[in-house]
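Worked example 3 (structure in, sequence out).
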């Protein structure tokens, strides 16, 4: 029996070596000894990155909810699985034990079955951070339905694109959602989205805000009534290891969002093992990740990772600024949180507020701090370390992606030292490579290149829903026989990795991945817009903010009409994507710099937006070199 726990640097070195010497032997021992299987596998790993095809634990049978819930019931049935902390500070938090979770998931699973959901069907979940969200996810997994959670901040248009892409026939939502002092009418957004989704036959509506909603007869059903009458026992659907568990959309640099498909067994092994070790979770710890379950961080490190380990995980409905900027720290004190995992953008926003918001609260329960989603700057790292961790909590800067399913590069508390702005060393079984632009691996240390992964790992996404060709082109074409992450990285003298940021046209704003193309498409819908180009510029809190260069079909010189167009543009973006993608700065320019083949030279636009105009490189080969000078005059007034 081996749980391969990593408690010392020696453990890390030994286990890492073992995992890379014999990948299959390592993962199969770990999987066999630490998870519950209905049937073992015939082969541990079959892979070919040129196709690409990756199969882990082929032939095995399991259900992930048996691993997340049922197997803890006997010894830990009364232990709290989920603590729900509501938006309103005066509302009571809810503690859901493993046995209560079991019943609630079973009831929800029976409701889904009752409306005809079967193994393999896709179910869209568009819910705020309330227990129904975690329960719906687990209910889908219990009956073998594939959940597709859409972040409840996305607009109706973004929601309908995602519902249609994977042809969901069922949507789970709520009457509304509380966000700070706002109430959002989620049901209305769903209604608008479904005007474009004729295949959706049922909408299940959880009650949260008690807002007035319209019910479409035959389609809309109130969840409360159905749950009341549903049985609380539901046997697990036996799944193949490679059956899809969920789809989660992420932005690409071009075209529509990519529905990343995660399979059952490999994802389970990756999420379970990383959670336990990277957060050094001990039996009675209270763990809190502040992400939204609409993103991969919430899937892997609020729901699946913690529950696979029988942990207590907090779900927070609200925002860090409500009722004031002390809310996070109030929650840490209230629940005596031991592990706290958040995003650099939240840290930067909170660090700007008076320190009294922190010092009012007792944070002595904290043992480990985590960060994820974007590079963390040194100042924010130091503030987090000193003011929150009181210089005694190791910080895990965890690098990973929607596509990787679980953490890939990270320090480990008291095992691999934290180093500001560095994700540090690869996790067990992960073999990174830095590549140069000619496709050669860069060997040695103190080097920088494009970050790739050389070998398969269990929790990697298997495909893009409905578009395997795009999966291959995006991740497996840039470098032969390697997974390309889209990120750049630096490796220091000790072999520690520092992620330097995206090298493609994805911009990370407040931790959200935004592709430039979908935003430009939204802008170009404006009748007066001829063309647009979006670039990211560094922003004190958000990491990056969006800067849009717009050319108009006709010249307009009234300030008033230009300012109306700016407003319209941001409205279009909100409508097509969501408010997270709104532009911070919009500039009208006479043209966009293009190569002779017509490609917009974003590199130049980026530099101008950064006000770095002395080093633009050779612009003489452009189709329209004069336009660069004109743009500089406009931007650098
Ligand atoms: O650019 C990297 C950045 O976020 C990207 C992945 O975004 P997403 O799929 O939304 O998943 C975010 C949560 C896992 C990466 O390609 N990123 C993520 N974590 C870090 C990071 N950049 C620097 N440091 C990190 N710790």
């Amino acid at each position: 029996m081996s749980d391969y726990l990593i408690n010392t640097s020696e453990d890390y070195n030994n286990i890492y070596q073992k995992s890379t010497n014999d990948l299959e032997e390592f993962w199969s021992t770990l999987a066999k000894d630490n998870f519950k299987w209905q049937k073992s596998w015939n082969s541990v790993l079959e892979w070919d990155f040129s196709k690409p095809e990756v199969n882990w634990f082929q032939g095995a049978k399991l259900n992930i909810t048996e691993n997340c819930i049922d197997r803890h019931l006997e010894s830990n049935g009364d232990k709290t699985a989920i603590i729900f902390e509501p938006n309103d500070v005066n509302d009571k938090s809810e503690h859901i034990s493993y046995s209560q979770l079991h019943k609630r998931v079973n009831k929800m699973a029976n409701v889904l079955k009752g409306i005809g959901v079967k193994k393999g069907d896709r179910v869209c979940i568009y819910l705020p951070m309330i227990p129904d969200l975690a329960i719906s996810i687990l209910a889908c997994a219990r009956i073998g339905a594939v959940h597709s959670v859409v972040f409840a901040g996305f607009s109706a248009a973004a929601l309908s694109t995602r519902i249609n892409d994977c042809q969901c026939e069922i949507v789970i939502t709520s009457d509304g959602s509380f966000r700070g002092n706002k109430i959002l009418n989620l049901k209305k957004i769903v209604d608008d989205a479904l005007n474009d989704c004729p295949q959706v036959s049922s909408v299940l509506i959880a009650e949260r805000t008690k807002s007035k909603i319209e019910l479409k007869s035959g389609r809309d059903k109130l969840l409360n009534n159905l749950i009341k009458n549903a049985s609380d026992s539901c046997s697990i659907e036996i799944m193949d290891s490679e059956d899809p568990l969920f789809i989660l959309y992420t932005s690409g640099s071009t075209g529509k969002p990519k529905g990343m498909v995660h399979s059952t067994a490999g994802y389970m092994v990756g999420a379970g093992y990383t959670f336990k070790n990277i957060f050094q979770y001990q039996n009675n710890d209270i763990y809190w990740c502040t992400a939204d379950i609409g993103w991969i961080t919430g899937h892997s490190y609020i729901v699946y990772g913690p529950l696979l380990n029988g942990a207590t995980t907090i779900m927070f409905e609200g925002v860090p600024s409500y009722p004031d900027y002390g809310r996070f720290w109030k929650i840490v004190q209230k629940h005596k949180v031991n592990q706290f995992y958040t995003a650099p953008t939240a840290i930067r926003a909170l660090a700007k507020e008076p320190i009294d918001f922190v010092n009012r609260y007792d944070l002595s329960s904290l043992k480990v701090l985590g960060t994820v989603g974007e590079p963390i700057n040194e100042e924010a790292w130091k503030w987090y370390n000193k003011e929150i961790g009181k210089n005694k909590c190791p910080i895990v800067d965890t690098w990973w992606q929607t596509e990787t399913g679980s953490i890939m590069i990270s320090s480990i508390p008291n095992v691999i030292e934290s180093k500001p702005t560095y994700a540090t060393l690869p996790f067990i079984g992960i073999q990174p490579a830095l590549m140069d632009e000619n496709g050669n691996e860069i060997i040695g240390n103190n080097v920088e290149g494009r970050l790739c992964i050389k070998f398969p790992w269990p929790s990697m996404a298997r495909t893009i829903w409905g578009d395997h060709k795009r999966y291959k082109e995006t991740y497996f074409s840039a470098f032969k026989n390697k997974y390309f992450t889209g990120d750049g990285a630096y490796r220091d003298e000790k072999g520690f990795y520092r992620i330097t940021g995206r090298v493609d046209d994805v911009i990370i704003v407040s931790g959200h991945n935004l592709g430039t193309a979908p935003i430009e498409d939204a802008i170009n819908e404006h009748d007066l817009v001829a063309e647009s180009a979006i670039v990211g510029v560094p922003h004190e809190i958000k990491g990056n903010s969006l800067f849009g260069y717009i050319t108009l079909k006709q010249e307009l010189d009234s300030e008033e009409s230009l300012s109306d167009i700016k407003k319209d543009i941001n409205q279009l973006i909100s409508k097509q994507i969501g408010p997270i993608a709104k532009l911070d700065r919009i500039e009208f320019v006479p043209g966009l710099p293009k190569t002779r083949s017509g490609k917009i030279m974003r590199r130049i636009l980026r530099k101008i937006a950064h006000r770095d105009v002395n080093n633009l490189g050779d612009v003489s080969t452009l189709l329209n070199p004069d336009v660069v000078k004109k743009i500089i005059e406009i931007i650098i007034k």
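Notes: The radius of gyration is 24 Å. The longest strand covers residues 529-539.
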